Amino acid sequence: MEVLRTRDELRQALDRSPRPVGLVPTMGWLHAGHRSLIARARSETATVVVTIFVNPRQFDDPSDLDRYPRSEAHDVAICAAEGADLIWAPPVTEVYPPGFDTTVAVGAIASPLEGAARPGHFDGVATVVAVLFGLIRAERAYFGCKDFQQLRVIDRMARDLAIGTEVVGCPTVREPDGLAMSSRNVHLSAGERAAAPVLHRALVAGRDAWAAGERDADRLRRIVAEMLAAEPLAEPEYVSCADARTLVELEVVDRPALLSLAVRFGPTRLIDNELLDGSEG
Amino acid sequence: MEVLRTRDELRQALDRSPRPVGLVPTMGWLHAGHRSLIARARSETATVVVTIFVNPRQFDDPSDLDRYPRSEAHDVAICAAEGADLIWAPPVTEVYPPGFDTTVAVGAIASPLEGAARPGHFDGVATVVAVLFGLIRAERAYFGCKDFQQLRVIDRMARDLAIGTEVVGCPTVREPDGLAMSSRNVHLSAGERAAAPVLHRALVAGRDAWAAGERDADRLRRIVAEMLAAEPLAEPEYVSCADARTLVELEVVDRPALLSLAVRFGPTRLIDNELLDGSEG
């Protein structure tokens, strides 16, 4: 396994690597969720590339960027254990060389939820992923469904710009108590960590009500919100029950829907979701 | 030579075509300027692809889009005469399939001049060219220097998104009386057509003054503007003397500069430019 820093090193390594190429873009601090993406790529492609880049353009909050956890040695060990072939861990100037001045923006699907809560976030995501897709030209790229809207934004962008990389969504990986794996979980205090599984419990309660026949979106949102409200450390930012295709809020759940939420525990902001569709519940 | 309509037809034709590929993106109504681009591509690449697509997203003025001249039979004949291999002349839905919702925007270089005069224009240009570059993956793409700012916007976008297509700028082709070739020239009345060479004459007067040692940008702009003012049919929109690298207006021409203008003749808007650098004058 090689750890590469520059665009040139990456290009040269890719030129001597077999196709198809599978890409796992990450911001490092790899956890079991990332491991599952790397393992999936390993099972489907001849060359597995993991990128490790904390992308400043997708942070709307500078303090969130400053305290985003980093540990390259740990990340490299995980990539090696999962059988990745190449790691690209560039400095900022290799991703955004001097003079870089292009923004890729996705429209409607990027507007609500995380797009509304974090201005500019999805422009930063779409732009950096367009750069990574351009550089790596992978046949497939793997993303976790915990960031469901991100997955949809990237898929839209890649199709629209005819980039030729298939965007693959992979199931959310959870701790035994249900908390979705996230690099930001490391910031939780012991008390917050103990409280955080309420996110998944609340979503499952909503999903269970839906599975039992509840189709009123407001009542589903309320079931989730009330369970969150019972946890004093949880400060909900939004609870959404939206059309899974458009992410527009629903009144009646008469189609596949996404139940999702963003919740703060102190300075740490966590998101999670459950899909309400024919294959669940 | 094949005329292709769909993304699939294009992809299949490219799959059986030798590399390198040279791309000449056009909006049709081909003239000697386009011919020179096709000929240059022909001399440098194994497969020459001409695209003919009047891109609605780059028209800020709907009436300009409606009256943009079109004649595919004429265009196909010119492509054949210049030895193009493939023509892609898609309907709008093949470039922008249902659901298309991505915008590629370039920053500072796209802001002044045409960017200021035509809101959204360069977003439309950068987006459609990103799609064409994604679909065609040419080694080189050829653009005319008459649209100098467009060339710079596209070059910025292609480098930033690591698209791998080299953007090649080609000299402006002119009528014998100096008028820059443009598909919009067809709209000029006989009187307007007779008056239109004043654009090039005015720019050459400015360039001559620069070559004779004038370095005050305001005086150079005034030389151009006064020559335009002497032509009653010409309604100048802007006269610019800008840093050729940044397109920021200059006070003193102490570096390579672009002398450029936009002028209306009735409903027809024309642009032209002259580079003031060491290799000229």
Molecular structure report:
The structure is a homodimer of 281-residue chains. With 281 residues, chain A is α/β, with parallel strands linked by helices. Chain A has two domains: 2-170, Rossmann fold (3-Layer(aba) Sandwich), CATH 3.40.50.620; 183-270, 2-Layer Sandwich (Pantoate--beta-alanine Ligase, Chain: A,domain 2). Chain A has eleven helices and ten strands. Chain A has helices at 7-15, 32-44, 62-66, 72-81, 92-95, 114-117, 121-136, 148-160, 190-195, 198-211, 217-229, and strands spanning 2-4, 21-26, 47-52, 86-88, 102-106, 140-144, 166-170, 235-243, 257-265, 268-276. Chain A has a six-stranded parallel beta sheet with strand order 1-4-3-2-6-7, sandwiched between helices. In chain A, helix 7 (121-136) crosses helix 8 and helix 10 (198-211) packs antiparallel against helix 11 (217-229). The longest helix of chain A has 16 residues, at 121-136. The first copy, chain A, is globular, with a radius of gyration of 19 Å. The termini of chain A are far apart. The model of chain A has no long low-confidence stretch (mean pLDDT 97). Chain A binds chain B through residues 7, 97, 99-109, 126, 130-131, 134-135, 137, 156-157, 159-164, and chain B through 7, 96-97, 99-109, 126, 130-131, 134-135, 156-157, 159-164.
Helix and strand pattern of chain A: EHEHEHHEHEHHEHEHHHEEE
Strands in their spatial order, largest beta sheet of chain A: 1-4-3-2-6-7
Helix-residue proportion of chain A: 25-40%
Name of the CATH class of the largest domain in chain A: Alpha Beta
> Strand-residue fraction of chain A?
15-25%
| Global outline of chain A | globular
Output the radius of gyration of chain A: 19 Å
**CATH topology-level fold name of the largest domain in chain A:** Rossmann fold
Which architecture name of the largest domain in chain A does CATH use?
A: 3-Layer(aba) Sandwich
| Number of separate structural domains of chain A | 2
Unreliable stretches of chain A, pLDDT < 50, 5 or more residues? none
* Structural class by helix and strand composition of chain A: alpha/beta
- The total count of strands of chain A amounts to 10
Largest sheet of chain A: 6 strands, parallel
- CATH H-level superfamily of the largest domain in chain A: HUPs
What is the oligomeric state here? homodimer
Average pLDDT metric of chain A: 97
Total number of helices of chain A: 11
